[in-house]
Amino acid sequence: MAAEHTNWETEFIEEWKRITKAYRNGWGELSQVIEIHINFMMEQYRKTGKVSKCIYAKIGFFPYAECLGKVLMDKDWNRLNNLIYQENCFRSFCSLTCGSSLYWAFLDMLDALAVGNRKTLDLLVPHKTERVTHIFPAYRPATNMLIGLWRRDNSVLDDAVPRAKKFVSGKRPQWERATVAYLLAMYEKNPKEAGVQLELVCKGVMRTDFDADTDKLLFVPAHGLYQLAACLWDEELFRQLPMPDHKIFSKEYAIWRNTQKVQPELFAKYPEPMINHILTNPELEMSEQN
User: Fold this and answer.
1) How far apart are CA 21 and CA 17, in angstroms?
2) What letter does residue 243 receive in the DSSP assignment?
């Protein structure tokens, strides 16, 4: 005879059933992949009792690629923002708890900017520059520029700006040079030049090995760069910044982001509240590790 469930276990299982049923009813052909992900996360949590054991590269990530096309087609910008937010929470969690240097998380920083995930952004952006080695070439000058701009630290910018200019004049791929050039235009408060460089970022991405099912459908870091200007420039200057006229940049989504004051939420919540809580408050896991 099977052992009876405790009250906690019964509530846990009922909530699990309710959430997975909601996805079956509302997501059609995508419901199965979402349900598989939720079931995987819950099984891992029940086995280990640790959120950190549920979240790791590839296996623990939300099925972002499978959902992105449908959400874009529906033009549901709030849902899109939440979808990107959930992916950003997963990837940022890994960067914050597993990596040796946050410089590797530069694109995560831009994704956080794109969706308004300021809490995680402030955890990701270092407070001072690091002498990092064995890093993707663009991430060093780009991250140093972002540190100076976001932290409003002129002592960082005094060193980062000339290094960024040297990088831009080099021979790295177009999207890398254009990303750093955009940050220089941010520093110089030059919206026309920033618009040119943001367009080049999008064009350059199409010539690289970025993921065809995600990045070449919607390049979220480009939206992050655009939102950086919205955060740091005054409204009059920001209005002068042209949006890229490119298929991997959604003008409609960008307009929605800057006209709707909506806080991002998880696209798919889990029956165990602690998973939702840690995903959206990664500093709790960081404190426990320390």
Assistant:
1) 6
2) P
Whether 204 contacts 173, CB under 8 Å: yes
Instruction: Report which of 30, 109, 44 is spatially closest to residue 268, judged by C-alpha positions.
Output: 30
Question: In b/e form, how buried is each residue of 149-171, taking b as 16+ CB within 10 angstroms?
Answer: bbbeeeebbeebbeebeebbeee
- The token pair at 39 is 């079931």
Residue found under tokens 């005054």: 234
Q: Contact 226/198 with Cβ under 8 angstroms?
A: yes
**What predicted TM-score, i.e. pTM, was given to this entire model?**
0.89
How long a stretch of residues is the chain? Answer: 290
pLDDT for residue 94 is more than 70: yes
| 194 within 8 A of 241, measured Cβ to Cβ | yes
What's the CA gap between 39 and 144, in Å, rounded?
Answer: 40
Phi, psi angle pair for 60, to nearest 5°: -90, -5
φ/ψ of 132, rounded to 5, equals -85, 145
Closest CA to 23 of 270, 231, 238: 270
Q: Could you tell me the two tokens for 115?
A: 């969706």
- Paired tokens of 124: 């990701």
pLDDT in tens, 194-247: 999 999 999 999 999 999 989 999 999 999 999 999 999 999 999 999 999 999
* 8 A C-beta contact, residue 89 and residue 114: no
